[in-house]
């Protein structure tokens, strides 16, 4: 009789641990997959996941030495894994990427051997640094979107999306939205029932697909195109006015088509998109902090067509103006 180890049937998960990693984005994936093992065993089934902390060395100090993690394995000793989880880094991103570049060939090799890779929040920077994302889409934190696009122009960063999956590469939106990626992976590997159980135990909203309501628009001005920078400032200082692309190009003495190309290249938005996003950002702040109704706010940001305002607002935030106000206005919430 041949006895086959249960471990053969278990999915091997490697959670990377490195000096500058954000502690919760290491601990939370472990909590999720170990927790699912517990749920399975409680229901009389076999555990599914073999979860390991994998480091460049066996001992890794985090948060400037406040915490120490003892890795289960050094990455070179892990010959085969099924899923690599890349936690979010902290500090200067270019320094972090350089400091941990020894991981990259191993990640690439494991991917080509069949492993899937999942980045938590701005762990997408490390995943992109491997080159595996070139020509592909990914999600990350909206706050670092401009920096990501500057560093990795060959990767398509998808604004607002919580979870992006392409060719066995998974990425998540900002901050704690990585919990939704973890639920997504649980459902993929262990089924919908286990994902629902995990969402209930950890009090998570399952199937949340957008981080749009959380995005605070801050126009990209880290470029050297001075006329475009002045056009951006004009838009931001005249939010109550009806601004046209034709009017802007004429004001700054640039042909419309050339103006649009330069604006898009400098800001990652077309002029029309930029105008909309600036106006909607002002509207959001009004809805968050004032007693004004939706129509009053609409007029203050230069819209006169109620339907157009609501459509654009929902397209950018994922919520209607009334839903946004009810969610984020303290006075409305108290009432």
| The CATH architecture of the largest domain | 3-Layer(aba) Sandwich
| Rg over C-alpha atoms, rounded to the nearest angstrom | 23 Å
From the spread of the alpha carbons, the general shape counts as globular
Task: Kindly state the percentage of residues in helix.
Answer: 40-55%
CATH level 1 class label of the largest domain: Alpha Beta
Strand-pairing-aware structural class:
alpha/beta
- Summarize model confidence as the mean pLDDT: 88
* N to C succession of SSEs: EHEEEEEHHEHEHEEEHHHHHHHHHH
Give the number of domains.
2
Our estimate of the beta-strand percent is: 5-15%
Largest sheet: 7 strands, mixed
Query: Which fold name is given in CATH as the topology of the largest domain?
Result: Rossmann fold
Number of strands: 11
How would you characterize this protein structure?
The structure is a single chain. The chain is an alpha/beta fold. The protein folds into two domains: 6-213, Class I glutamine amidotransferase (GATase) domain (Rossmann fold, 3-Layer(aba) Sandwich); 226-334, Orthogonal Bundle (Arc Repressor Mutant, subunit A), CATH 1.10.10.60. The protein has 15 helices and eleven strands. The strands form three sheets. A seven-stranded mixed β-sheet has the order 5-2-1-6-7-11-10, with helices on both faces. Strands 3-4 form a two-stranded antiparallel sheet. The termini are far apart.
Blueprint of the fold:
Layout (H helix, E strand, L loop, with lengths): L10 E7 L6 H19 L6 E7 L3 E4 L4 E4 L2 E2 L8 E4 L6 H7 L3 H10 L3 E4 L4 H6 L7 E2 L6 H7 L4 E2 L5 E4 L2 E4 L5 H13 L1 H10 L24 H12 L7 H7 L4 H12 L3 H19 L4 H7 L5 H12 L3 H8 L1 H5 L1
Helix pairs in contact: 1-6, 6-7, 11-14
């Amino acid at each position: 009789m041949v006895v086959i180890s249960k471990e053969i049937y278990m999915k091997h998960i490697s959670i990377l641990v490195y000096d500058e990693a954000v502690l919760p984005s290491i601990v939370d994936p472990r909590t999720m997959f170990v927790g699912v093992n517990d749920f399975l065993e409680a229901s009389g089934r076999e555990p599914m996941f073999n979860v390991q902390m994998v480091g460049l060395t066996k001992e890794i100090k985090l948060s400037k030495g406040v915490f120490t993690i003892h890795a289960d394995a050094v990455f070179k000793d892990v010959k085969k894994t099924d899923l690599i989880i890349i936690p979010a880094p902290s500090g200067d991103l270019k320094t972090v990427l350089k400091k941990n570049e020894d991981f990259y060939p191993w990640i690439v090799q494991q991917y080509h051997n069949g492993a899937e890779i999942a980045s938590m929040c701005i762990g997408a920077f490390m995943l992109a640094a491997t080159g595996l994302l070139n020509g592909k889409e990914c999600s990350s934190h909206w706050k670092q979107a401009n920096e990501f696009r500057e560093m990795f122009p060959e990767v398509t960063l998808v604004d607002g999306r919580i979870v992006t999956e392409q060719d066995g590469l998974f990425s998540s939106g900002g901050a704690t939205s990585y919990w939704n990626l973890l639920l997504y992976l649980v459902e993929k590997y262990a089924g919908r029932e286990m994902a629902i159980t995990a969402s209930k135990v950890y009090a998570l909203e399952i199937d949340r697909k957008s981080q749009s309501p959380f995005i605070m628009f801050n126009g990209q001005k880290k470029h050297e195109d001075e006329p475009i920078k002045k056009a951006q400032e004009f838009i931001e200082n005249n939010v109550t006015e009806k601004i046209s692309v034709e009017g802007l190009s004429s004001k700054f003495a640039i042909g419309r088509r050339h103006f649009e190309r330069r604006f898009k290249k400098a800001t990652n938005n077309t002029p029309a998109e930029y105008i909309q996003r600036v106006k909607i950002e002002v509207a959001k702040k009004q809805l968050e902090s004032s007693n004004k109704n939706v129509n009053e706010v609409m007029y203050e940001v230069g819209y006169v067509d109620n339907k157009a305002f609501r459509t654009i607002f929902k397209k950018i935030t994922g919520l209607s103006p009334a839903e946004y106000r009810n969610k984020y206005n303290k006075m409305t919430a108290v009432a």
